[in-house]
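User: Sequence for Molecular chaperone DnaK below. Tokens please.
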Amino acid sequence: MSRMDRERQERLKGILLERKRVLWSEVRNELFQTLGTEYNAQFDRGMDLGDRSLVDLIEDTGLKVTDIRREELTRMDEAERRLAAGTYGICEECGVAIPEERLALVPFAPCCVACQERREKPLRPLPGVTL
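Assistant: Structure tokens for Molecular chaperone DnaK:
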């Protein structure tokens, strides 16, 4: 591996690990600080059915956001495995280097933008075939 490749890998590693650290911090704060104090306060006063429904909705929304972050952390773990294998930052489809700007926005991105767009394109039915 050339010096430039090693420097790029170190920069990419920094991007990935910093984003992962921030996500873990957000998840911890939501679970332990926000939810913990809110749960205690909720049961200090009586609630009617409408109040309880609103509290349930807020709890579900908070848990869904936390679940989205957990999924993102799982993808980051996979990106760390690719980093250890030396394939992080390389498009899984075409094999070109994924721009660092893209990885700064989506550190777990497995593909370059062009290949990701191809992956996300809806499949067109064959002519004459109805679904």
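The chain has one domain: 3-120.
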